[in-house]
Amino acid sequence: MKFLRRIRLNFWRFFKQPLNYHFFNEGDAVDGVAVGPELKATHLTLHDMMPYACRWRLTAEKIMLGIDVNAIKILGFERIDVYTGITTFQPYKMRAI
């Protein structure tokens, strides 16, 4: 089963875009529950790379583990150097978006 999910993930990476998720921050009031552990995504700190990296990381988790998730809560950001950073986020299942 894990082998088939890995094939599906590789197909998804080559031929499709990551899934879309609703982003929100620490202070936002949401109607949902956290699903799974905190995840980290390493990415370039250019204009649009943080959401793209988080969406790909969570798409991979969703395909490999089969979790039901539709939102991302951004917990923190750490700059490694001028062009690289790490974003910590929590997958969420929101009741209504």
Explain this structure.
The protein is an alpha+beta fold. It has 2 helices and 5 strands; from the N terminus they run αβββαββ. It has one domain. Strand 4 and strand 5 form a beta hairpin. The longest helix is centred in the middle third of the chain and has 17 residues. The protein is globular, with a radius of gyration of 14 Å.
The geometry reads as: globular
Percentage of residues in strands: 25-35%
Count of helical stretches: 2
* Low-pLDDT segments: none
Compile the SSE list and pairings.
Layout: H1 2-15, E1 22-24, E2 32-34, E3 39-44, H2 49-65, E4 71-79, E5 84-94
In a nutshell, what does this entry contain?
This protein has 97 residues and is of the alpha+beta class. The protein has two helices and five strands, in the order αβββαββ.
Essential attributes:
2 helices, globular, 33% strand, five-stranded mixed sheet, alpha+beta, 97 residues
